[in-house]
Write a structure and sequence with these properties.
The protein has about 625 residues and is of the alpha/beta class. It is built from 29 helices and 9 strands. The strands form 3 sheets. The protein has a 4-stranded parallel β-sheet, sandwiched between helices. A 3-stranded antiparallel β-sheet has the order 2-3-4. Strand 2 and strand 3 form a beta hairpin.
């Protein structure tokens, strides 16, 4: 298995070793992605784990990576950024000390050498007692040697203590180790070090020991975790003494200047806005508007129309025709959503996201927005799903799984469900606004509601505030093959995971119409619609908005075009429809990602907010224009 800090090139090395034969799935009981593949030319399977910095796990991704480690893989490949070997070698020492068979990979050697860093890999190999491989993953250099080492797997754990602390620590480690009677996935010595460092998961693991009370007493002797890890860092520095040499290098290249500007307080925000705008243009305009329009038109002309004509001519049973075709059929609605609408959006987004990943800019963007997002209980990582929501809320909800804590994922999901219009709805809203003032009022009301919802959720939901620390790699020119590989792998996952949801939703709609529940819901929505100053026809618009957001917006456009709504009513309807429940596809994904209970809670919160804010907007506008 591959382990290492984020942004060190694990995915690139995984790609180089496995090629296209990879599958992405959730780790059981979590929303964390795990990639598995078969190594080319070898009878071994490889797992690419989420980033982790040490055995002390903080984020869910790190906890998942540690759980996989505790399954005792035959070989652990620790990938480090050669430029930052001093900071990353402590984890290598922990892996060796834990009794794993380890290969150390010094990746991005081209960048290290450009910065004047020289590493004597042979000497480091001799000191540690494990193989050390230099690689440049972007160019696949060093991959052949790594593959041969994996195939032979002759290098076993040196079975020596590579972490040697001072006598006080060593005495306590020895005492705790002797009290541990059961067998564990890692060595008793490393288990003792983690317990003394205060790792709660390790301490919980040791509760089943008959001597736990005595172990607990030893753990309460005042050892600070940072003291132990400082000693391990000092140990790593000793190993690297004479191994790593730094010389002066020529500064001022174009790439280095752009890298510096990306963290400059005056230039970083304009760069961030430009990058976000480019993502929106690529995924939100090209994907969600241009490509969707082309593919959906072709789907309608070449699939829906011929299919409906065939069903009308040869299938007598009306409800059977409606299950397959018609306005809400499995083929005409469900598969059309998945193939003609969501597929072009996710494809363009995955391409844009892969380019951001490969360029090294994504961590900078997240770090830049972290402070502002902390105000509403999110971290800088949330910028991606929230931005994607302007293209497609369904896909954005899926992407929230990249956020670190459950609390953060729920807040982001709630904000996406309540206040962020998808590109289709956004386009119609901009077209239906009576004038620029109305559009400005709509944007202002939705923005205030979004901030209030995020703030209230961050105060209400239990859970720790999201921790945010991230490696800032240098900016790079994205590698085309890497971008294609990541995009194809993610699309494969999309078709396996998401498409069945759209088919299921179509069946649910069919059942609703068959049982007349559809008509009952329209009648139920007519009353609150009139209560907030809208015509009763708005109930049908809101229901359409649930099935598909731009359906609702188009219905609103139709009512306004017929002159059935006043200036104030149009603004109230724009606000209410935007804040109303997400479309059925997004709702389905929301329940899948966050659980049915949370999904239903967000559903009813959205309804309450939509009608409450719609009512207040109506009162305000009546006061302004009376």
């Amino acid at each position: 298995m591959l382990v290492g800090s984020p942004n060190v090139g694990k995915s690139l090395i995984f790609h180089a070793l496995t090629g296209k034969y990879a599958t992405v799935s959730n780790y059981p009981g979590t929303t964390v992605d795990i990639t598995r593949g078969k190594i080319k030319g070898a009878d071994f399977s490889l797992i690419d784990t989420p980033g982790m910095y040490s055995f002390i796990a903080i984020t869910e991704e790190e906890k998942v990576a540690r759980r996989i480690l505790f399954d005792r893989p035959d070989l652990v490949i620790h990938v480090v950024d050669a430029k930052n070997i001093e900071r990353m070698l402590p984890f290598t020492l922990q892996l060796i000390e834990a009794s794993f068979n380890v290969i150390l990979v010094l990746n991005a050697m081209d960048e290290a050498e450009r910065l004047g860093i020289e590493i004597d890999a042979e000497s480091l190999e001799a000191k540690l007692g494990i193989p050390v491989v230099k690689t440049i993953a972007t160019q696949k250099k060093g991959i052949d040697r790594l593959r041969e080492l994996i195939k032979t797997n002759k290098f076993k754990n040196p079975e020596k203590e590579v972490i040697k602390l001072n006598s006080d620590f060593e005495e306590r480690i020895e005492k705790v180790s002797k009290l541990i009677e059961k067998e564990y996935p890692i060595s008793k010595r490393m288990l003792s070090i983690l317990a003394l460092a205060g790792d709660s998961d390790t301490i919980e693991m040791l509760r089943n020991e008959s001597n736990f009370d005595e172990i607990k007493r030893l753990l309460e002797t005042g050892v600070k975790s940072y003291e132990i890890f400082k000693k391990i860092q000092d140990q790593a520095n000793e190993y690297l003494e004479g191994i790593v040499k730094r010389r002066e290098y020529e500064r001022g290249g174009l790439r280095e200047r752009i890298t510096e500007l990306s963290i400059n307080p005056y230039f970083s925000f304009p760069m961030a806005l430009l990058s976000l705008y480019m993502i929106y243009l690529f995924a939100g305009v090209l994907g969600a508007q241009i490509l969707v329009d082309l593919i959906e038109t072709a789907y309608e002309d070449y699939i829906n129309v011929p299919l409906n004509n065939f069903l009308t001519a040869y299938v007598e049973n009306y409800w059977l025709r409606e299950l397959i075709g018609g306005e809400y059929g499995v083929v005409t609605l469900g598969i059309r959503y998945a193939v003609a609408i969501i597929f072009p959006i996710v494809t363009t987004f995955f391409i844009a996201f892969s380019i951001l990943e490969d360029s090294g800019y994504l961590p900078r963007l997240a770090a830049l927005l972290d402070t502002a997002f902390k105000k509403i209980g999110l971290s800088g990582r949330a910028v991606i799903p929230l931005l994607l929501g302007l293209g497609c809320g369904t896909m954005a909800t899926i992407v929230t799984r990249t956020l670190e804590t459950r609390k953060e994922r729920v807040i982001a999901t709630l904000m996406l469900a309540v206040g962020i219009p998808c590109s289709a709805q956004l386009g119609v809203m901009m077209g239906i606004a009576p004038d620029f003032l109305a559009l400005l009022m709509w944007i202002s009301i939705i923005s205030v509601v979004m901030l209030a919802v995020g703030k209230a959720a961050s105060k209400t939901l239990k859970g720790e505030a999201s921790l945010f620390f991230i490696e800032l790699p240098p900016l790079r020119v994205p590698n085309l093959s890497n971008v294609v590989f990541k995009t194809v792998t993610r699309l494969e996952w999309y078709f396996k995971e998401v498409m069945p949801i759209f088919v299921l939703v179509s069946v649910v709609i069919w059942i609703g119409r068959l049982t007349k529940v559809f008509d009952l819901v329209v009648d139920a929505l007519a009353y609150p619609s009139q209560l907030i100053g809208l015509p009763k026809e708005a109930g049908l618009i809101l229901l359409y908005g649930f099935f598909r957001r731009d359906y609702g917006a188009a219905g609103l456009f139709d009512l306004a075009a017929k002159g059935l709504m006043s200036y104030s009513q149009i603004i109230v309807a724009m606000v209410t429809l935007t804040l109303f429940v997400p479309c059925v596809a997004q709702f389905g994904v929301m329940c899948k990602e966050r659980g049915l209970k949370t999904g239903l809670a967000i559903f009813f919160i959205a309804i309450s907010i939509a009608f409450s804010v719609g009512y207040l907007t109506n009162v305000l506008l009546n006061f302004m224009y009376r």
